[in-house]
Amino acid sequence: MRLIDLRSDTVTRPTPEMREAMARAEVGDDVYLEDPTVNRLQERAAEIFQKEAALFVPSGTMGNQICVKVHTRPGQEVIVEEKSHIYNFEMAAMAVISGTLPRVVRGRDGIPDWPTIEAALSPNVYYRAPTGLICLENTHNLAGGTILPPETAHEICARAHERGLPVHLDGARLFNAAVACGRSVAELARPFDSVMVCLSKGLGAPVGSLILGSRAFIEEARVVRKMLGGGMRQVGVLAAAGLIALEKMPARLAEDHENARVLARGLAELPGLALDPEKVHTNIVIVDIAGTGWTAPEFVERLKAHGVLVGSLGPTAIRLVTHYDVSREDCLTALRVLREVLREAREHSRRSEDHMGTTPGS
Ligand code: TLP
Hints:
The chain is α/β, with parallel strands linked by helices. The chain has helices at residues 16-24, 36-49, 60-71, 85-88, 93-98, 114-120, 150-162, 174-181, 185-189, 215-227, 236-248, 253-268, 296-305, 328-356; strands at residues 4-5, 53-57, 77-81, 101-105, 131-137, 167-170, 194-198, 209-213, 284-288, 308-309, 311-313, 317-321. Ligand TLP binds next to helix 3.
């Protein structure tokens, strides 16, 4: 049975063009700054994002954590949104690696506003840990791929900079945001002091993320990357795929967004599922399944038995992510499977109610 894998856009496999480029990549030792393909990827990324410099890193998590470390010193607080990846899925790395304390704020659809952030800034007194950094996320994963409005980003960064505070962007899916709101990634990245963007999610590269920032920032980031064991050698084989991800793949992300909307509209019609399809603007669909009577892990197992893989997020939420390796046809098949599984569930619960004599009138 062919599986339809909607767990994440991280599952995408390299395209034939990427594999070809990987096989042919010119390489050197990148710790000596001598890998021509890595150098080309970094230069090209800096150009596309209109930042002074870029650094290729093994993962989004390492990219985010290098940025936290370069921006802060131990004993400082970092403002993060309560559902952010940096806070929920990076294993307390900012505490372990940077000695910093997350100060959590709540956002609407993952997007905090400046007054909320301002209220969480540390007062300027010696017996309180000072705020060292603010982190934002675009698109916001756990909020369902929501887009950080450029105006909100500008406002937060401008106010933060007035106070001498840097702002980091977890832009793992910044290309999705750019395509969905019709702006360039350079424009969305402009107000931020550092940006992390992933090549290995919707853009389809097998491995790798980039950090972007000033030349001085990237120099320091390279030192921290090495300290964390992220100095890579003939890594041009990966950068070659990254270059194709960067140049060619953004153009097709609109297709993933349209597939996600098709899924969302279809799911919203199914009994027991709750979501607002109007809120789906990129490639992530989060659905509350409390009304089915199943837990998310049970529901995920049922779907898996029918060849559809989705992710579970907490006790009653599931996540479906569209990407290069799922077609419109796959999405329609997944919807049919979901409808069928939910119908079986209703029949099952009706039969057991009959059996227990709990059906009204029995
Ligand atoms: N997200 C993964 C999981 O870790 C949840 C996924 O399947 O979506 N920032 C954001 C916003 C992310 O969504 C992710 C990965 C990362 C950072 C970390 O990237 P990696 O997995 O390369 O360390």
